[in-house]
Amino acid sequence: MDKRQSDIFEAEAPAIRDLPLAERLRPLMLEALVGQPKLLQKDSRLREMIASGNYQSFILWGPPGTGKTTIARIIQHSASQRFVQFSAVLSGINDVKSVMREADYAHKYKGERTLLFIDEIHRFNKSQQDAFLPYVESGAIILIGATTENPSFEVIPALLSRCHVFVLEALREEDIALILGKGFGELGLEEDTDVIAWMAYNSGGDARRALNELELIQGYLRETPHPEIKDLARVLAKRTMYYDKNREEHYNLISALHKSLRGSDPQAALYWLARMIEAGEDPRYVVRRLIRFASEDIGLADPNALVQAIAAKDALLFIGMPEAGAALAQLTVYLATAPKSNSADNAYFKAAQDARKTSHYGVPLHIRNAPTKLMKDLDYGKDYKYDHDYANHYHYQDYFPEQMGKKEYYSPGEYGFEREIKKRLEWWKSLRKRS
Questions:
Q1: Could you give the C-alpha distances from 339 to 242, 293, 297, 418, in angstroms and in order?
Q2: HEC secondary structure over the chain
Q3: Which residues contact residue 246 at a Cβ distance below 8 angstroms, ignoring those fewer than 6 apart?
Q4: How far apart are CA 264 and CA 339, in angstroms?
Q5: CA 278 to chain centre
Q6: Alpha-carbon radius of gyration of the chain
Q7: Residues 368-417: pLDDT tens digits?
Q8: What backbone torsions phi and psi does residue 6 show, to the nearest 5 degrees?
Q9: pTM above 0.70, yes or no
Q10: Which pLDDT tens digit goes with each residue over 267-285?
Q11: CB 290 within 8 Å of CB 239
């Protein structure tokens, strides 16, 4: 490895045997990297950069344990350029400025460009990311970022526009199984294909997690080389599901739940509900979104959907979890199988557009409130017709501002209770014509 390559947070490298298993198995050559066939296919942009050594700034975006840091280490091992890496978790703005000064000096006076690898770049704030920009533009540094978060949200636009984004996918089970097989060999464990297959299935596509769990239970596997899967599951019972409550995966899962409900698929909706709840999502957040769905996507096609949603909310607040999980499941099935209509939601959207444009229009005098004599003297409420005094409890009046004229925002759908609402609207319309 080139002596100019460095890691500002590494001291003397520890003995191989003292490294975590995932680090010991990390490949240093592209041919040894398992997974990511699309990203690393023949003639791919990333493969060509690594082969030629002609790098441009890029960001590696993907779930944990999919090879982002490994790709950076392969570049570090093979590149002839000066290589510097640091972690956004451990470094501050002073570290950033110091590295930038060194890179600028090397570029101006030695003609050297610096490959700068930043792990978890999304953890740098805007001002820290701004500090890289002039050095990327001048060519002093070639930025290689790694992130588990969507760079569209976490990397400043000026920096992102100067970087290519390579997307890594969660590893396939067969990839994880292959990596676990190497882990068994490294640890001197007797391989068990059933154990490896089960661990690969439960890894969530995260190789590092799979190897960390293997390292955690190596003592158990030495004593019990071929355990029952149910016994092994108990040993790892405290493992956590892959889920991020605050960032992209959070919104991906709630989107999957919402769209499964809209698509009237109760089976998929229950799955996504369980994915969120079992991973530790706040059930109050889930029920708020279900309440919203009851009006947004079902609305008056089944007015009872909102009643059911509020009842599930009350059950959750009254008895708590996990007991209220049954109420959430009941609501999910109800919403998925209910007739769908977004007519009321669309009607409000159109009314809101008009409201924003016409907020200066006054309320017609005949429907204004008139609690005082002055208001009555100013004709507030004058000529208002009290509907209950007329046949059918109805008397036609104009309720829109005079400048607008009558508008029609709501048009009922053809399904569920909205068929009844359509009949009612037609009846009121006939009464208006007679008036």
A1: 33, 12, 9, 10
A2: CCCCCEECCCCCCCCHHHCCHHHHCCCCCHHHCCCCCCCCCCCCHHHHHHHHCCCCCEEEECCCCCCHHHHHHHHHHHCCCEEEEEECCCCCHHHHHHHHHHHHHHHHHHCCCEEEEEECHHHCCHHHHHHHHHHHHHCCEEEEEEECCCHHHHCCHHHHCCCEEEECCCCCHHHHHHHHHHHHHHHCCCCCHHHHHHHHHCCCCCHHHHHHHHHHCHHHHHHCCCCCHHHHHHHCCCCCCCCCCCCHHHHHHHHHHHHHHHCCCHHHHHHHHHHHHHCCCCHHHHHHHHHHHHHHHHHHHCCHHHHHHHHHHHHHHHHCCCCCHHHHHHHHHHHHHCCCCCHHHHHHHHHHHHHHHCCCCCCCHHHCCCCCHHHHHCCCCCCCCCHHHCHHHCCCCCCCCCCCCCCCCCCCCCCCCHHHHHHHHHHHHHHHHHC
A3: none
A4: 8
A5: 17
A6: 31
A7: 998 888 888 888 989 999 989 888 898 888 889 988 888 889 999 888 99
A8: -150, 165
A9: no
A10: 999 999 998 888 778 899 9
A11: no
Query: What do you get for the CA distance between the two ends of the chain, in Å?
Result: 92
Angle of CA points 200, 38, 163, to nearest 5°: 110
For tokens 């706040």, the residue is 282
Residue with tokens 């159109």: 350
Long-range residue pairs from 386-395, CB within 8 A, at least 24 positions apart, any chain: 392/431, 394/428, 394/431, 394/435, 395/435
Q: Would you mind telling me the total number of residues written for the chain in this entry?
A: 435
- CA angle at residue 74 from 152 to 156, to 5 degrees? 15
Distance CA 27, CA 14 (A): 17
Residue type, 205: G
